[in-house]
Amino acid sequence: MIPIRVLHPITRLIIGGAQENTMLTADLMNKGMVGGHFDRLSDGRYKVDIVSGPQTGPEGSLIEEVHQRGTSLTILPELRREISPLNDLRAVQKLRQMMQAGGYQIVHTHSSKAGVVGRWAAHLAGVPVIVHTVHGWSFHDQMSPVKRQMYVLLEKFGAQFSQALIVVSPQDIDKGLAQSIGRREDYHVIRSGVELDRFGHPAVPPQVMRQQLGIPMDALVVGSVTRLSPQKAPLDLVMAFAYIHQRQPEAWFVIVGDGSLRPEVEAGLQAAGIADRVILTGLRRDVPELMAMFDVFVLSSLWEGLPRVLPQAMATCLPIVTTRADGSAEAVVDGENGFLVARGQPEALAAKALVLLADEGLRRRMGENGRSRSLQFGAEKMVQDIHLLYQELLLR
User: Which residue, 346, 327, 155, 174, is CA-closest to 246?
Assistant: First the structure.
């Protein structure tokens, strides 16, 4: 069997949802994973490569992990996050040459910048099938009107070269159509999948992890796994922790992750007088083990596609308090496996977290509900859905 060649362009391989989605899709398709098991009919059906820009950042890098998984990765210096007409045209030209030389039948782009230059290059290269995944739209309400409109125009430009637009949340279909991006029949909902079997089965017991971090064994722990960037509103998280501390002074707090706002977060913790109760772990790859010692999971994002940490927390059997940030409401059903609150309202985050901290039975029930619901978000299901879409598009 001659394998179907697939190329996934992405702007940068930082530790993040879109990037892990891309890495897992390439890895599992190359290994013939379909429908949650190794399928011999699919083994060798695909040869999937990734091309990424060179930038990483304080969020950390997945480049080494992509190599470890055996996925072919090309680093293209011209593929950068910042808009630069001359550099972007060079990226289009180099991607076009790469796509033609590689004989790719499918180009599947991710992230806004790679989505534009990658789809344009694929069109120029005559690639038969061009797919783009929207990991949350590049435009959002926190932007200035001029900048927002520019990103809308870029998304419309890229959409004209696409045979399919994958969204991780149905809400993104409505947002796209409201801006005349593509047609309704172009859209396909495929939830961003995670490796669920890694969560809820920690390699290091929670007691040992607490001991390593200096957290008392009997303390209630409120935790978050997040990027310290404006999108994730980590200063709202700091304020929420401060409110919780006022009511539950014995509680401890953990933030796993890093980013450009770390200095502001550290200053905020000092100003709130809770720096000795909040552990900033920085970048960690043992997230399943860290999550396993939490009692409540909190996320303060202002906008999202579908944050992968929510299914991860659900698979860990954690009750969740999160903002109503687009795809977050796809994972968390208010009152069932957690609580949804308005964005930019740290007091509301704290109030719901306090409800959970005060009721062990409620924490347990919501955690169990979340674990059952997490099965909808497995990486194997995501890859199976992408495989079926590819087959449909190749037959057109």
Answer: 346
3-state SS assignment for residue 224: strand
Would you say 357 and 321 are in contact if contact means Cβ atoms under 8 Å apart?
no
Residues 99-112: pLDDT tens digits? 999 999 999 999 88
CATH number of 196-377: 3.40.50.2000
Task: Report DSSP state, residue 69.
Answer: T
Give helix 234-247 / helix 346-357 axis angle, nearest 10°. Answer: 50
With a cut of 50, list the residues of the chain below it in pLDDT: 35-36, 38, 40-41
Query: Strand, helix or coil at 73?
Result: strand
Can you tell me the distance from the alpha carbon of 338 to that of 322, in angstroms, rounded to the nearest whole number? 8
If DSSP codes are grouped into helix, strand and coil, which group holds residue 375? helix
CATH level 2 (architecture), domain 4-193+378-394: 3-Layer(aba) Sandwich (3.40)
Listed by start position, the domains of the chain span 4-193+378-394, 196-377
Predicted pLDDT of residue 136: 85
- Common-topology check for domains 4-193+378-394 and 196-377: yes
Q: What is the 3-state secondary structure (H, E, C) of 288-345?
A: HHHHCCCCEEEECCCCCCCCCHHHHHHHCCCCEEEECCCCHHHHCCECCCEEEECCCC
How would DSSP label each residue in 358-391? T-HHHHHHHHHHHHHHGGGGBHHHHHHHHHHHHH
Contact between 298 and 223 (Cβ < 8 Å): yes
**Mean pLDDT of all residues belonging to the chain:** 93
Q: What is the token pair recorded at 394?
A: 């190749």
